[in-house]
Amino acid sequence: MTERLVREYYSGQGIKEWKRLVRDSYHKLEFDTTTHFIQKHLHKKKGLILDAGGGPGRYAIWFGKLGYDVVLLDLSLEMLEIAKSRIRRSGIQKRVKQIIQGLVDDLSVFESETFDAVVCLGGPLSHIVDDAKREKAIDELIRVTKKGSHIFVSVIGRPAVLVNELIRLPKEIELDFFPVMRDTGNYYGGFGFAPCHFFLPEELEESLEKGGVRVLEMVGLEGLASGHRKETNMLARKQPTAWKIWWETHLKTCTHPTSVGISEHFMAICKKH
Question: Which pLDDT tens digit goes with each residue over 94-130?
Fold first, then answer.
């Protein structure tokens, strides 16, 4: 049921999901911080990357332009059609080895230790509400990664979602789903967003390490700016010098546990034993 709702939600997003990560300076924090830390940890400019749950292909194209080969997997055919179009426009078709419809919790189409790095970015893991399936997805992401290679997983953070309810949707706090979401992280849909499991940082870290990887860093992708879209965009637009200083400040603070905990999205950077 929740899988169908997730597919329907993203199939209805169309080009909006392609634009999401670059729509303004606030949203670009997620993309720019993610790519900054991927480049920090991936030193070889070659190899085969799995972009699991990569939707319309924003990260797949970025990897392709850097010189990596990529396999893109997503559950939504509509998202994958957008990805095919954007990949053609970007001129990196030779770098994209496969575009596959599939689920993050079932990567059986791939042999174990196939990929030189695996990414699962923006929240595909969050959209698996069932605990067992979510643990299976983590196991699968680790299984298809080569030993000694990196896995990058970003999810949607629970504290940031609760704060967002307070700031933007206070009427929803009285509804039955709010305490369930608060206490378990689980949201089953019906209020403008796809079903989702909202993570605590320690929860993600523990699940990954239990699966057989070492977590090298945790990163708050929006960091201290989380929830401050208007102020972030205004600073970037009207005060470019201050924005440059803020970006430096963000990079210096985004790995602090406080910044990770409050971020709308946070990322675990892992290495397989």
Answer: 999 999 999 999 999 999 999 999 999 999 999 999 9
DSSP-derived letter for residue 227 is T
Which residues have CB under 8 Å from 237's CB, separation 6+?
A: 25
Q: Which amino acid is at 102?
A: G
Domain that holds residue 140: 2-272
CB atoms within 10 A of CB 217: 15
Burial status of residue 106 (CB atoms within 10 A of its CB: 0-12, 13-18, 19 or more): exposed
Q: pTM for this one?
A: 0.97
pLDDT tens for 217-247 read 999 999 999 999 999 999 999 999 999 999 9
Q: Is 67 helix (H, G, I), strand (E, B) or coil?
A: coil
**What CATH number has the domain bearing residue 109?**
3.40.50.150
Q: Which pLDDT tens digit goes with each residue over 196-212?
A: 999 999 999 999 999 99
- According to DSSP, the residues that pair with 197 across neighbouring strands are 186
Indicate left, alpha or beta for 190 from its phi (over 0: left) and psi (-120 to 50: alpha): left
In terms of Cβ atoms closer than 10 Å to its own Cβ (0-12, 13-18, 19+), residue 188 is middle
Alpha-helical regions (H) of 99-200: 131-143, 158-168, 177-184
Total domains in the chain come to 1
